[in-house]
Amino acid sequence: FSFSWQTTFQDGGEEVEDGAVYNVTLKKVQIQQAANKGARWLGGEGDQLPPEHTVRQYETSKIRAIKAGTLEKLVENLLTAFGDADFSYISIFLATYRAFASPRAVLELLLDRFGNLEASSHGEVANLNSLESEMVLRVEIASVLRAWLDQCSEDFREPPDYMCLLKLLDYLKNNMPNSDMESRVQNLLKQFQNQEVEAVDGFCSTSSSDLVDGEELEISNPEDFSSFQDHVVAEQLTYMDVMLFRRVVPYHCLGSIWSRRDKKENKNLAPTVRATITQFNAVTKCVISTILGTRELKIQQRAKIIEKWIHIAHECRILKNFSSLRAIISALQSNSIYRLKTTWMCVSKDILLMYEELSEIFSDHDNYLTSRELLMKEATSKFANLDSSEKENQKKSQKRLQLQKNKGVMQGTVPYLGTFLTDLIMLDTALQDYVEGGLINFEKRRREFEVIAQIKLLQSSCNSYCLIPDQKFIQWFRRQRHLTEEESYKLSREAEAAADTNILSPKSQKSMVKRISTLFLGTDVFTPPKEQPPKSSPVGGSSGESTDSASVSSCEFNHSETEDVCMTPVSSPEDPLKKSSVGSDKGYDSDKGSISSDKGSGPSKGSIFDPGSGSDSGSIPTRDLGLVPSSAPKVLPVYNRQSGGSCIIRVSMDGLHASVYKSILITNQDRIPDVTQRALLKHNLEPDAVEDYELVQVISEDKELVFPRDANVFYGMNSNVNFDFILRKKA
């Protein structure tokens, strides 16, 4: 006989039971059966029977997948899912159940209600269709327990009493004495008891308690930093990232878990995720401190350090380490580094192009489509797939990649964890925890598991790395004293002021400007903006403050506009090339994260929920100095004209002459409190006094437009008159 078959699936609707709702799918298999022997006698060619002599049989099976249910039903389904052909259910449940239950609650249900064979012989066991005997039930429970220990053994780490592990051990002694699983649980208990309370790995800590006696935190000596080869720095950063990422407990990333981290009682919540964030912050701050920490550096020396970090970022790309790659790019896009326009002019053209290409990986276009596609493409590939539009960079990349291949060592992939945290928080926000009847929405957990599975896949790929720690670099890295945002901004201003007074011949100045402006021929020539000083509150993770409560994806923009005290007539137009556009503040917000707003109650600008806000940590520095965020308008905003969703307004203080004003860039996202706060900062007034002032637009000598408290300035203003505003103290 010969056989062939064809499988089709059909939606079978829903089945509702007491305490559970199931999605039903009908699997229909068509089997064609033919008797080969004597086929030719029946008119067939070769061994093929004519259609009228082919026997067709149909087999239909039902696949049930639980959609929602009580906790009891979900736990019971662990024992019946295999019989219902829902083969992934156990893995999904174990990866996500911490969002709606504790390990103890699940274990008690599994062992006391379903595992107590004597008590349940006339109860639940009789109602479990797929279980026909006591032995089958015991095997099913053993299978679930084995999967639990394999996939989520950390669930049983509950020092100091380890109640769940002791309860499990007691069950195994009574029901499966001398089994391999009993030995395994005993060994796990000993392992947990012998280990100290698990602490976050100290690679990225800047606490003095992590240093050897006599060591102190220090600002990096440029010579010390330059002594490390680029590929060595990248390998060591990757080594630290790999060690931390492999330890990430996937359920710590769940939106319902991670979103509770800001509460005081949850300061120790999700420690494995916090550890990766601390490392990310440490890399970012290390980049800034090496560039700004030494006041005596000359312009060219500072530019060389920037070039070195760009090369290190490129080496991270070759190693498929997207975490440190993004940390370095974020640091180079921070306010304090971004504003070093004279220093950036000394960075070579080829390296600026390399920097732009690396930055484009994290473009916020289409919800970070580029980085997502690249991550999935390289998740399990042996080596990075490097493409460059610049021939010279392409040659260098291929040469370095060939060296990696010649070593015969495959590379894993370290992701930027913030992408997954963003997706999981989005899912948690968008989908309900419970459905009608108070049933747990398990469809939500299936969706979350799709993201968790990607994290697990990447963790598995990290086993391919073969990196050896360099204690000299690690000790140097740990000794770095991280600058606060205020310190870095102050040092940045000093460095730029020194650069401005540095003796440069007119010819050399002209050649540098020409080189930068022709670097991206055909685009607008752009002058980096002057920056406003950071707010008085330090960025989390600066001196005296912990960074580990950050969200990985918490780099955000602050608008930075030009600050002018113009004595020209109000009616005279300004040269648009003297105006500057939006700046980039990549300061790491270690308390809020990219999803939560300042109050943690909603999406912040630039998050996945607000793609049009134009504020995101993944903006691409492009054009001119390679420093213009991708969200900046292509047409430079100018005074008295709304263009590309932005414009420049002039704000003067009530009581002062109208020609003494501050120029402020506003976008179509800005409301009165935002603009008022920036205007106060520009006028060196206390920004917290927003409620004490009102913003009005001057229409004519005897007319003015007063804005409501939460009005959108861009859309509410009169665009037919001069964009002149007054900041007036309320009566």
From TrEMBL:
Stretches for region Disordered: 524-627
For the biological process aspect of GO, one term held by this record is: Ras protein signal transduction
* Residues in Ras-GEF domain copies: 229-498
Q: Which organism is it from?
A: Mystacornis crossleyi
Q: What's the protein called, per UniProt?
A: RGL1 protein
Write one Pfam family the protein is assigned to: RasGEF
Q: Which UniProt keywords apply?
A: Guanine-nucleotide releasing factor
Polar residues composition bias: residue spans: 547-557
Gene that this sequence comes from: Rgl1
An example Gene Ontology CC term for this record: plasma membrane
Compositionally biased region (Low complexity) = 537-546, 593-621
Ranges for domain N-terminal Ras-GEF come to: 62-193
Q: Does the keyword ATP-binding apply?
A: no
Query: Which SMART domains does the entry link to?
Result: RA, RasGEF, RasGEFN
- Occurrences of domain Ras-associating (ranges): 645-731
Q: Which InterPro entries match?
A: RA_dom (IPR000159), Ras-like_GEF (IPR008937), Ras-like_Gua-exchang_fac_N (IPR000651), Ras_G-nucl-exch_fac_CS (IPR019804), Ras_GEF_dom_sf (IPR023578), RASGEF_cat_dom (IPR001895), RASGEF_cat_dom_sf (IPR036964), Ubiquitin-like_domsf (IPR029071)
**One GO MF term, please?**
guanyl-nucleotide exchange factor activity
The superkingdom of the source organism is Eukaryota
In terms of Gene3D superfamilies, this protein maps to: Phosphatidylinositol 3-kinase Catalytic Subunit, Chain A, domain 1, Ras guanine-nucleotide exchange factors catalytic domain, Son of sevenless (SoS) protein Chain: S domain 1
